[in-house]
Structures are given as C-alpha cells and as structure tokens.
Amino acid sequence: MSNLPEARALDAADPLRSWRGLFALPPGVVYLDGNSLGALPLGTASRLGEVMRREWGEGLIRSWNTADWISLPRRVGAMIAPLVGAAPHEVIACDSTSVNLFKLIAAALAMRPGRKVVLSEPGNFPTDLYMIAGLEAQGLAERRLAPRAELVAALDEDVALLLLTHVHYKTGAMHDMARLTRAAHDAGALVLWDLSHSAGAVPVDLTGCEADLAVGCGYKYLNGGPGAPAFAFVAERHHEALQQPLTGWMGHAAPFAFTDDYAPASGIDRLLTGTPPILALAALEEGVKLIAGIGMERLTTKSRALSEFLRAAIAETAPGLPCISPEDPTARGSQLSFRHPEAYAICQALIARGVIGDFRDPDILRLGLAPAYTRFEDCWNAAQALGEVLESGEWERPEYRQRAAVT
Amino acid sequence: MSNLPEARALDAADPLRSWRGLFALPPGVVYLDGNSLGALPLGTASRLGEVMRREWGEGLIRSWNTADWISLPRRVGAMIAPLVGAAPHEVIACDSTSVNLFKLIAAALAMRPGRKVVLSEPGNFPTDLYMIAGLEAQGLAERRLAPRAELVAALDEDVALLLLTHVHYKTGAMHDMARLTRAAHDAGALVLWDLSHSAGAVPVDLTGCEADLAVGCGYKYLNGGPGAPAFAFVAERHHEALQQPLTGWMGHAAPFAFTDDYAPASGIDRLLTGTPPILALAALEEGVKLIAGIGMERLTTKSRALSEFLRAAIAETAPGLPCISPEDPTARGSQLSFRHPEAYAICQALIARGVIGDFRDPDILRLGLAPAYTRFEDCWNAAQALGEVLESGEWERPEYRQRAAVT
Predict the structure, then answer these.
(1) Which reaction is this enzyme known to catalyze (chains A, B) (predicted)?
(2) Number of domains within chain B
(3) Residues A312 and A334 in one domain
(4) Are the Cβ atoms of B95 and A95 closer than 8 angstroms?
(5) Is 0.95 exceeded by the ipTM?
(6) Residue A396 belongs to a domain with what CATH number?
(7) With contacts defined as CB-CB under 8 Å, which chain A residues touch B407?
(8) Residue B352 CB: number of other CB atoms within 10 A?
(9) Which residue of A has its CA nearest to B246?
C-alpha cells in the first residue's frame, strides 16, 4: 500500500533531492511530461541573458572566437556522450532530430551500396518513418516495416540499415539494443538508434553494443527547451567513410577558406550543416549540464523507483486502468502509459487539476518521470488525481473533449 | 568633401534616428558587420526572458497551445514576407539557410524530371555550392558553374534550376533578379534566390520578378541572433506540386495523428521538418519586428545614402584602396568591399581601434551598413580609422596577422 507519508519519506531520503531545486517548477503543478518537454533549469535564464547581453550585444561578431561559439556543437556533444555510452568526439549537437535522421539514414545507405532497404517497425515515432519516406521518394531508399517480433527475420541481404527508437514513445517498451545491433550486423546491415526517449532517462551503452549511428532529442530529458537542437552519434570507426548529403559550409574541412568545392571536415564535424544556433545551443548546454552532473547511474535508480511507486499507486487508485508499459522496470523507459478510450478527456481533466501528463492518439495516457526533478509525492498526487477523475466522471465534461491544435 | 559636421547633420536629419536606440550597441564601437551578425535588439533579451520564465517555465508543455508556439514558424515567415515582396503564406521560418537550400534544390529537381543540372556561379557563397554537391554525391543533381556574364548562355534544356545569391557576399554586386528569372523560365528552368545578403537591406520583389523559390538568413540584417533560424519562400503556384525530401513530422498534414505514412501539409507548412526551435524563433521575431516596422522603403533610402557617404569618405582617407563593389548604389547590396593583400591584418587593426568590419579570404575587407542602426558618423569614423591604419602601417604588427579560428 503506497501512501503519502511513504512518498514523503522516499523524497526525504532521495539523493537527488537538492537537484530539483535547480529547476523552475510552477507551484501547484505535478509535472509528468518531462518526456515531451523537459522543465526549465534555473541556470538557463541567466545563461541566456549573459549570452545575449554580453556575448551577442557587446561582443558582437567577435564572440565566434572570444566566446568560442564556434565549438559549441562539439562541446555540447561531448557533454552528452557519457549519457549514451559514447566517446566525447563521437557526438555532436546540431539541427533537429528529424534532420539528423535524414543525414544518417542517407549516410548508411551510402555505406551499403547495392542495398536499399531501411528496416523499421510500424508505429515507430512518425518522424523516423517519414524521414525514410523522404529518401524513398527520391528513389534512394526502400522502406520496410516489420512488427518487433519479426524484425530479426526481416533482416536480409537487402537491408542497409535497421532504424529503431530505443524506447517506444507510446508504450515505453525498450528494445534490446545489444541483441538487435548484433542481428543487424550479422545480416551485414548498419543500425541507427533513435535515443529521443532514452538519453538522460535510461542507461544506454552505444559503445558496448557496437552501435553504428544514433540520434536523440535535446528537449525531453535533456531539458534544452522547446525545439532545442538535437544530437547525433557516429561510431569512430565510421568517421572517415561517413558521407552525409547535407554538406553545408560548417561541415567543411576549412569553412573560412570559402572554396567552391566541398571537402568534409574530419571526424564528427562533418555532420554540421549551417551556422550553429548559439542561443539554442547555450540553453541546451545548461540542461545537459544538470543531467550530466547527476549521472546516469543515479538517474536510472531514481527513475525505476519512481515508476514502480507510481505503478503501485495507480494500481490502487485506478485498478481497472490497463497499464501498457512493460512490467519489468529494466525493460521500459522512464514513463508509464495507460489505455482508455477516453484518454484525451481524462488527460485534460488531470491538467485542470494541475497534473500534467499527455495524450497520444488514439487512446493513450502517458505519464513521464523525469528523475532529475520528479518526486515520489508527485507520483502519489498523480495517482490520487487519476483515481478521482475516473471515479467522479468529471472527464465527461464537453470542454475536456475539445481537441487543441497540439495534443 | 565629407566631414564630421556633415555626418552629424545627416544623422540629426535621419528619419530612422530613433530606431537605433532600440538596439544594444556597445559604446566606443563602430559596428560595420551587421551583414555578418546583426546587432542585438533591446527587446530580444526581455522577450526571451518572458518566453523562458513564463511560457516554458510556468506554461511548460501547455504553451504549444496557450502561447501558440506551434504557429511561430508561419508567424515569423509572414512578417518577413513583405520585406522580400512575397505574400504572407509564401514564407516560413525554419532550420538553417543550408538546410532550406537542400530542401528547395531537391524540390526543384523533382519538379523538373529529366533535367539534373543546377546552374550557379563560381564564387557563390560556399554553402550554396556545397548543398548542390550533396545532391550530386547522391546522384540526383549535376552542378554546373558559369561566370555571371555567361549564365544566360549556360541555361540549356538540361538545367532544372538556376541557383544564385542575389547580393554577392564578397563584392556586394547585385544580380538583376527579374532578368535572370525570366531567362531561367525561358529555358524551362526554375530559379532559387538566396536572399541572405538582401533581406532587410535592399529592395526585393519576388512576386514582381515571378521568382519560384528563395531562402534567406535570419542573423544578418534581420537581427535574429547568432545562428538564428533561416527562412524559405515558395511561390504559391508551386505549393501543391512541391515535394521536398526532409519530410519530418512537422511538415505532415496531421502531425498529431501519428500515422506511419507521410502526407504533406498543404501550403508552405510542408517545408517544416522537426520541432520548431521556439527560443530561437522568438529571438528572430523580435529582430524582424524592428526591420518590418521601419519598412524597406526607408531602409533602402538610408542604406544607399550611407554607402555613398562611406564611399566618398574612404576615397578621401584611403585614396589608393580599390573598392570592388559596384559604383551604382542601386546595383549593390548594403556593403562596400575593398581589396588589399593585407586585408586580414588591416581588419584586425581596425577592430583594435573599435571599428568592426570583416575579412573575406583571401584579400577582401568588407564594411557592412545596417540601415536600421548604422550612423553617418560611424561611416566617417570608419573612414578616418581606415586611413590612419593604412597611413601608420600599424596593421604590420604580428598579432594582427595571426589568423583566428573564425575569420
């Protein structure tokens, strides 16, 4: 039986307790949507004020050198690297997850001439599937989807790349990265992992799994702010062979020589395309700094404890609500998802009570647990609110069924 | 004969005088590099503070709806539109100039099946040429370069697209957009204009010229901050046919339906790829707001008067220094460029004196005039400093010849 005193005792004993104070969390809100948009680190507002007023306002163009703006994509990438089991020079922060997917899918196809199939699963996050479709429309790729139980069987000699999201955005189910990477390699294919729901939330060992390529999101568990730059990983052994098609001037070996012909920079830098977005990268750096400061071991321990606590609490307050996330906490991401035909209205009713989770079409209520700042008491409050919303039927109000532009 | 009292009289009579006060310009600095990085608008720091603390910190995920984050790319695009002679629904703010170039070059190739040549000129801004090279390496494009005098002759039945930068970044020379667009159309090709050195600086009439496609930079004359999002234009008549390969979820007809198959949004929205970068777009919006508020007519008048004043002043203080920008102010961008074998060291010596212009490899000193905040007195001071630097030989100091990472 979970209860409020138990939740408070767990919070009091939580080694991450003091880190929560480094985030701006509005009073009266239980925020369980850090897997969609991470909370604002207090340091971000002052850092961006400094970047704007001192570096941009006073330093002006000189800050590319004096504030070392030019190396910000590499610096932030290196800070993300240990969170995903990569070496610092294997990760870079740039563009969006979608754009980085395009670069790396195309690069993988170029590394496997004669093979055109990119294998993924139906129901993968849309942008992953759509970016394959973009290359398919260009005649460069062929999209193949197989349900997760049939993925290994679908790996044949036509497959250039296996592209999967490590933690599923809807269910939280986690792929076995080591096993699937091995299976892809056995079939002569490369593997590209989307870590959007993993980085900063669950342990990832890209190097240990011998992963080839990865991308991930900056605005979820890394707290980089809405639409923050994403990151991309390329294993060092592929650096020299890597040819990506978005060959912009910042990925050139000598951008300031202004030559007519493209020559890729050595190493991970060749993933760069346009001028780095400094304000956005500085915000991302502040978010990553906190997560890297806590470290994946403590984040993992806390994440699993939180989700187990929340699962037990909701099993008591809303016993009829099916949880569709894996039961084993080591087999799921830092979230719990529940299925209900009126999930949208239930989610709105919860938000009206100050409990912010989110809805995923058509019938999923998703509760995210950001170990850096979510408390056990938040979980307890969320479970109570969910029980009361279901019990009272208050979600039936028409205003809770009105769909907003962004759901 | 230009002189300081004359400069001050011109500033006193300048109808844009009060706008300069809306930018944060450091005292003691003559900033002639707004064509590389526009100055910080005072409103940007407070706007971003508000976006961070209130919209992100307090509103959290809800702000996608409540603060209408989701429409920011369209809103900023619509605000840029009148500056380039476009309709509001023809422009969108997203990604970098380089990434937008890739989308639109690929889209043009798809609209001209059977033609693979993308025609440009040698010495065009590198990223424009490199993005063609990226598609060339994929086997989708064939890059052809012709000197500007031979461009029209190079337009044959193999050319799918003519890709040019309207105002040349090194010399400031301006192409005749109407004439070249007509010539491209006569040859059955489309035209893509890079407006990076034009938008907010010189008059552009995309609609009047019947231009097909355009891109432009957010961090030069639009003052969006270092690495700000760029913009892209597609003439309405091409909206329905437009197929660009970076088919991310934000360009989908129904992003929140989370379907497996891509279906493009109608209109300009299909140029979107990943999640919009809200902090960066909010900063860009503040910069664009000022420029749109002044309007292109007043900006053009001021720009031409400034550059004529600066040209005359430098002709007196540094009479031996060749100006390589066109003499006719209506045939050049809002800049003046000078050639000297020691341009790098001269530029550094000027910066040491507080006069910030920039250097472009191998021998160009570039002085940009941002009509929203550059004063005639700044031009007079720059001309004096340039004369003194050349006269004294102070540029010969070894520290001025040491190349920085970013030049």
Answers:
(1) L-kynurenine + H2O = anthranilate + L-alanine + H(+); 3-hydroxy-L-kynurenine + H2O = 3-hydroxyanthranilate + L-alanine + H(+)
(2) 2
(3) yes
(4) yes
(5) yes
(6) 3.90.1150.10
(7) 256
(8) 15
(9) A134
**Residue B189, in any domain of the structure:** yes
Which residues are bridge partners to B264 per DSSP?
Answer: B252
Tell whether pTM > 0.90: yes
Which residue of B48, B144, B260 is the best one to mutate when testing the A interface, meaning the one whose CB has the most A CBs within 10 A? Answer: B260
The rounded distance, in Å, linking the Cα atoms of B397 and B133 is 40
Residue A282 and residue A300 share a domain: no
- Among candidate residues B33, B194, B212, B358, the one labeled active-site is B194
Does residue B313 carry a pLDDT above 80? Answer: yes
Convert B124-135 to b/e letters by CB count within 10 Å (16 or more is b): bbbbbbbbbbbb
Long-range contacts of A311-316 (CB under 8 A, 24+ apart): A311/A336, A312/A2, A313/A2, A313/A379, A313/A380, A313/A382, A313/A383, A313/A384, A314/A338, A314/A382, A314/A383, A314/A386, A314/A387, A316/A1, A316/A2, A316/A383, A316/A387
Provide the shortest C-alpha distance from residue B27 to chain A (in Å): 9
Does the pLDDT at position B327 exceed 70? yes
Residue of A nearest to B107 (CA): A138
How does pLDDT run across B123-136, given as a tens digit for each residue? 999 999 999 999 99
Residues A277, B277 contacting (CB under 8 angstroms):
yes
Q: Which residues contact B147 (CB under 8 A, 6 or more apart)?
A: B121, B122
Pick the last residue of a domain from B261, B293, B325.
B293
Can you tell me the mean pLDDT for B84-110? 98
pLDDT average, residue stretch B201-213: 98
Cβ–Cβ gap B245/A134 under 8 Å: yes
Confidence at residue B407, expressed as pLDDT on a 0 to 100 scale:
87
A207 and A60, same domain (yes or no): yes
Q: Over pLDDT 70: what percentage of chain B? A: 100
Residues in contact with B273: Cβ distance below 8 Å, sequence separation at least 6, in sequence order: A96, A98, A99, A102, B94, B95, B99, B103, B246, B247, B248, B250, B251
| Domain annotation covers residue A406 | no
